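Final report, results section. Input specification for complex C-07:
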Amino acid sequence: MRIGVFVCQCGTNIASTVETEAVAREALQHPDVVYATSYMYTCSEPGQQQIQRAIQEENLQGVVVAACSPRMHEPTFRRAVEKAGLNRFMFEMANIREHVSWISNDRQANTRKAAELVHMAVAKLRFNHPLSPSRVAINKRVLVIGGGVAGIQAALDCAEGGLEVVLVERQPSIGGKMAKLDKTFPTIDCSSCILGPKMVDVAQKENIRLYACSEVESVAGYIGNFSVQIRRKATCVDWNLCTGCGLCMEKCPAKKVPDHFNEDLGNTRAIGIPFPQAIPKKATIDKEHCRQFTRGKCGVCKKICPVGAIDYEMEDEFISEDFGAIIVATGFDLFDHSSYGEYGGGRFPDVISGLQYERILSASGPFGGHIQRPSDGRQPRNIVFIACVGSRDASVDRPYCSGVCCMYIAKQAILTRDHLPDSNCYVFYMDIRSPGKNYDEFVRRAQEEYGVNYIRGRVGKIYPKNNHLIVQGADTLLGAQVEVEADLVVLATGVEASAGARELAEKLRISYDQYGFYMESHPKLRPVETNTAGVYLAGVCQGPKDIPSSVAQGSAAAAKVQALFSRDTIETSPQVALVNERACVACGKCIQVCPFGAIQWKELRGGIQKAEVLPSVCQGCGLCNATCPPKAVQLQHCTDNQILAEIDVLCA
Amino acid sequence: MKRRIAYYQGCSLEGLAIEYDTSTRAVCEALDVELVEIPDWSCCGSTPAHSHDALLSAVLAGRNLAIAESTGCELAMTPCPGCLKSLKGALQAFHNQSERDVFLEILAMPFTGHIKAISILQLLYEIIGVDEISRRVIRPLNDLVLAPYYGCLLSRPAQFAEFDDPENPISMDELLVGAGAKLVDFPYKTECCGATYGVTRNQIVARLTGRILDMAAGLGAQAIVVACPLCQQNLDLRQSQVNRYWKRRFDIPVVYITQLLGLALGLEPEQLAWDKLFVEPDWPLTAPAVERDHLEKAQS
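Structure output:
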């Protein structure tokens, strides 16, 4: 084999701590290497042309590039060698940037390590074979998980492009957190007025099928061909019959059921529709509080329902659907402020979360939009807002900024001053973060036009005194301690990963960070892709963000799916396991270890059994290769011989 | 069966806080706990040591723990939160890989680090338990209205104290309720009393303790209950200074939890050194009963 080696300097990224020329010189000593050079930016167009020219002029049969991580530019170089007439698998990459130059300043040791990595790549390449991908058809249906504003946007954009969409939402209605908001910053437009029409669109689009009260149970398959099992939770109401008339809700005798939609500020019934604009507008029974379930008798709703939709015997139902792509938009949960003992740890009814205040402000909320205290219904006069509760605080393991709280408390303070002109609003803040369009102007309006008192400092303690809440804090600009006698305290509770986010990530085989937010493929350049092909992200499940960014990401994810579905087939990687039938002893161990169910029995003539890999299902993990006693299963492009060749030269 | 526990009284309990020492010993005896006084114990170094050098503080306290280990006890109890912090600092130095060698070298005594340091509250609340203590109550604190005051050190920093809630501790509350007392919902449970500023800048202490006394008086407490010699000193000994500073007439007894539990367990006031308090209670010690008019007067 005639091999060429190209050592990249990556500007100074590699060259500053690695002698790239020396690495290239040493590469020429290895068997089969006929050409070696070092270049400033190998990934640039002239860099790629240099490789292509060398392939022509030197009749190269294999190419090694020593540069950055293959996750960065392996596809670039594979395309380059392919254009010059080589098979793309006759290419190897040695990572001398992330694995060498960026992690040590020792020039001599770095140069040695880089040279050894190049030697290993050359040794492996000598055993490479041309491989060719096969093509499989793409199933042009898309699954959207999560019916908040990001998921709704993604579903609508996909449906607009003619795709068949299934939207799975675990709550009884879509709308997500945005449906609970009163107004939105920085325009103070009504949240349900702008979200409502989109929700209705979801219900009316013929190519969107909505599964509310449902969750993803399992995911199998791969890009273009996912097979997903969905659990439709028992609502105890036949939604095909339910007309959403609401009679059951009126007559239900269980009247003390905490109203989760109103953030537990009020009570609702054990059967009902969560809010007036709910989509679908269908009733659901809350089994935890329904007397038919807790006491074994009641049956009022069953008697009253004019269409006979109530079915206490209903059980969870499982359905299987196939998709070509999945958009994950599972949103977030609010930080639980009970870990802040200094703010009462949840003991004081008039110390509430930001979302609870949102419900208080809302006309469809527990108090009909009148601002009053949850404890005694009195109208508050002094209202204190505390920023960064569960954000930017390492002591509660939330060191990140939630990004929306500065804005939502500015909005809530403006609305408070608007509703109650005699009230006094105080905002305790660390820094004001308002980088969006018209955002800072909005905060300035809160301060200047609406007279909201901004105090820079943290609150150290809240305690009740004479039916008030004494808020003790610091004003770090004055260098003084301040005390406010408040009637209501609103904590700007931060954003955290949605409950169950990690479990869903395991099912989807996507990665998440230490806080449970899903990892995008590249923090700047691939913000809606995951590292699992065909799975895309939208909204806060990827990290805290506001409504405009969530909507933008929903559209972006939809655009990615449209681009994928613009083709009819997709190449599958030939880097899959392959069984050498002559060596297979039919022990079945590979079938046991395969996590993807990609290996099955195959019967040869005469009833002899052999293992067989389904290339379209195999993910190329290599478990079977490592397990197979006679080494009959070999992972293509990563065979035992190739690995041993690398080890041999490293140990030589 | 008698529990054997090494006892580190610390310097404060030899002097100003002698009633804390007396009542701790009496209550432990009444609860069948044998306190083994650490032979030849020495000062933990207190604030001067740890503000000068953490290692100095660790070794000074470590010496006492090393001797305590030699008595065969598995627990070393100290009523003083300051001493407790020093003892825990010694154990932290020992269990820290990078500090251990130099710590042991200076200590120059055998030390296994198996011994645990606890406070008297931990002994009463976690080891003996509220249930057992309330079972032994023979003279309940009949509805005496009390303000439990923990100060800043007993439950903090949380990772270090490993006891009770850092913001809303409840151990003393439960012990007192178990002994028949009534409690005010005291928001200043963990506010600072000014600590050692009593010596150098006593106006700070007058200001801070004044707030605590004002809150307790406003809520109608008949006494403030403490578990720290420094808190007791600032609130009790300096109450007249506070009165001059604030132009007030506070007259609230500040008593140790052990003194009250001792009464409830049937011990006599003399056994609990009640005569050592500066502000004397205006309610009878041996049959403390709620004085409704006192309570109503304070609340109005």
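The mean pLDDT of chain B is 91. The longest helix of chain B spans residues 54-70. This concludes the modelling results for the funded period.
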